[in-house]
Specification:
This protein has 206 residues and is α/β, with parallel strands linked by helices. The protein is built from 6 helices and 9 strands; from the N terminus they run H-H-E-E-E-H-E-H-E-H-E-E-E-E-H. The protein has a single domain, classed as Glutaredoxin (3-Layer(aba) Sandwich). Belongs to the SCO1/2 family.
Length: 206
Amino acid sequence: MITRRLLIASTALLPLMARAGFAQDGHADLEPEADAGMAQEMPRRYMMEDLYGNVMTNEEFAGKYVLIYFGYTGCPDVCPTSLSTMADALDILGEDATQVTPIFVTVDPERDTAKLMREYLAFFDERIEGLRGPKAYTDHMVKTFNARYEKHIPDPAQPDRYSIDHTASIAFLDPVGMLIKRYPHGTSAEDMANDMRAIMAEAPVK
């Protein structure tokens, strides 16, 4: 399944990357040093927009397990791989996937329009919801999840042709909105699905 999705991504996403101002990405994982310092007593709070202009807060996803991935449509390798893994994990979960809301949050709201994101995510799985927002809102959500991103502009004469390094793990939240764990980049879809299924079996969504 992963091979099939990556083949689709590698061929069909090229025009989307070009439209997004894609430049060679020197991606580096910016993983949190630890989540132990993050308060676990309260759910992660944020406010963004979905890809149809509706205001979305963390409360909209209450009552379901949530997968959250931060990235951008111009990412040439890490994001397509991660989204393919997410989609394949949902397929492996089968009926259990109805308990999960998968979310892709762009860290490049300047270039990632709602239309572009809809087209991008459609190549992976229509169940993956996209969120975007002004930089201040994006930065707040990124910080809320103890994630990071850095913009790199190789040529100052072309400031719109930049790449973004970002946290590459996928966050898994419980139905209350608290972080359960992160799946590091490179985790297989099978391992992710099996782990999620075991966690959800202990506390299924009602």
